[in-house]
Design brief:
Layout (H helix, E strand, L loop, with lengths): L1 H12 L4 E6 L2 H5 L11 H10 L4 E6 L2 H4 L3 H5 L1
Parallel strand pairs: 1-2
Amino acid sequence: MLLARLIAHAEERGQPSVVLTFDPHPMAVVRPESAPKLITPMPERARLLGRAGAQIVVVIPFTAEGSAVPAREFAQ
């Protein structure tokens, strides 16, 4: 599982495990007609990630403007 690998990797380095997520779902902004129905609302998602071991959960608002930022630029 990706989250377990992230947590183990962070622990090996003595760093906090950080999970980044978007709200709303990117498809709800880019192609609303194709957006999946969410099974877990954001507050619950963040809580569950924390219970699973993520020490920090960062929620980034997803906007049309943000979707235009190239991936490399976003990562920097």
